[in-house]
Each structure stands twice: as C-alpha cells, then as structure tokens.
C-alpha cells in the first residue's frame, strides 16, 4: 500500500523540479560580452584590466540591484529581455559629432575603448559604474518615450549612486540649476525625493511603464516637482 503513495511522491518531486528548472530558465538573462576593439589601446586595456568575465559578473550584479531598487520581484514586473549584449567598440560618435563613453540602444550596450584608454584613474571602477548606468537603461521604463531624457539619465545615475560607483566630478547634493538637468544633478535630487518617501524612485519608474506625466511627483509626494526642487535647493542652502 505504501508503494503507490511513494511513487506519487516521487513523480511529484520530479514534476516540481522540472517546473523549478523551467522557471530558472525563463528568468535567466544571458550577458554576451564581445571586444570588437581588441587591437586598439582601449581594447587591450579592457582585456588586461577588466576582462569579459568581470564584465558579465558586473552586468548580472547590476541587474540584481536594479530589480531590487525598482521593486520588480517577478518577471511580469520587468521587461521581457533574455539577452543583453555588451560590445567594446573603438569609438562611439553621436549624430551631433560628440564622442561618448558608452551608449545603450535596443538593449545593447556599447562601451567606447577610446574612453577607457584616455580615462585617468581606476579604469575598472569607472567601467563598473558605466555598467550600472547603462544596465539601468536596459531595464528602466521611459514613459513610452515621453519621459524627459534628463529624468531617465538621472535615474540611471541614481542607480550608479546606489551601487556606490559615483564618477569623478559628479554633482554634489544641492548642485544644479533645474531638476531635470540630468545625470548626477537629477540623481542627487531623486535621492532626496527617495528620502522623503522610501521607494519613491521604484514607484516613479513603475508609473513610467506606459506614459509620463510630471504630476507623478505630486501623486507620490504631494508636492509639484518645482516645489520639491526649491525645497531641495533650500535644504542645501543654494
Ligand atoms: Zn545614460
């Protein structure tokens, strides 16, 4: 009599482990790192001082931090992305002719080898900070393209701040002339807002899934973004 019950238990365990395996498979993200600038000075620096293995680990660590900061515990909360490529390229030149350290589009990250070559300081630490910023662009919502660029860039630097990889020359708390100036200015302001309401940035990002409205600040904090910015500036005496 005990044998059929044992069989059912065994089958149940097999089913559970198969299901468990399936879930792990669905949630896995592949990070594919390719150095397309292997003979350029910055490509050689990447291979010698950073490496593809470290880059993959950092991309995974960034993803885990971002899902936590954005309160995206389940796959349904997140973008449906299973592969994120990162390419080391010789240079990245925007249509306006400006060369930039890194860029992300269509969930693909480009890192500029020329920038790595010219960087003065700990290049591995700088690369790590760049990965946190760019991985945020992979996962964040942008209000279906309606959010101000300064805000999406500010959220990316907010994540970099929370990862504890601030860049040299970053704005200090209270710096800047407007809330959506972008990058570290906006990151510091968002950090202030997050201090007023724990999880503010996560909730703001969630609201930006399908669209954008500046009143999201009012909805979450009970004050307009302009009022919040002047409160913030007053707090730091500038
Ligand atoms: Zn960016």
Automatic annotation (TrEMBL):
Keywords: Signal
InterPro entries to which the protein is assigned, alphabetical: Uncharacterised_BSP (IPR007541)
Name assigned to this protein: Basic secretory protease
Pfam families: BSP (PF04450)
Transmembrane keyword on record: no
Signal sequence interval, chain numbering: 1-21
Keyword DNA-binding: no
């Amino acid at each position: 009599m005990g044998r059929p019950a044992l069989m059912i238990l065994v089958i149940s365990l097999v089913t559970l482990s198969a299901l468990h395996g399936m879930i792990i498979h669905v949630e896995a993200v592949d990070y594919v790192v390719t150095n397309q600038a292997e003979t350029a000075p910055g490509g050689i620096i990447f291979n010698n001082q950073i490496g593809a293995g470290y880059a993959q680990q950092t991309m995974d660590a960034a993803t885990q931090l971002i899902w936590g900061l954005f309160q995206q515990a389940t796959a349904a909360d997140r973008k449906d992305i299973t592969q994120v490529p990162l390419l080391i390229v010789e240079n990245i030149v925007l249509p306006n002719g400006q060369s930039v350290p890194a860029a992300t589009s269509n969930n693909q990250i480009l890192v500029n080898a020329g920038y790595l070559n010219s960087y003065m300081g700990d290049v591995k630490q700088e690369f790590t900070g760049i990965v946190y910023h760019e991985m945020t662009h992979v996962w964040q919502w942008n209000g279906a393209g309606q959010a101000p660029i300064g805000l999406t860039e500010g959220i990316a630097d907010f994540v970099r701040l929370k990862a504890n990889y601030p860049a040299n020359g970053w704005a200090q708390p209270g710096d800047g002339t407007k809330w959506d100036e972008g990058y570290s200015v906006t990151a510091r302001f968002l950090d202030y807002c997050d201090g007023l309401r724990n999880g503010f940035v996560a909730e703001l990002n969630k609201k930006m899934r399908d669209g954008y409205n500046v009143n999201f600040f009012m909805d979450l904090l009970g004050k307009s973004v302009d009022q919040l910015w002047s409160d913030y500036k007053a707090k730091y005496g500038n």
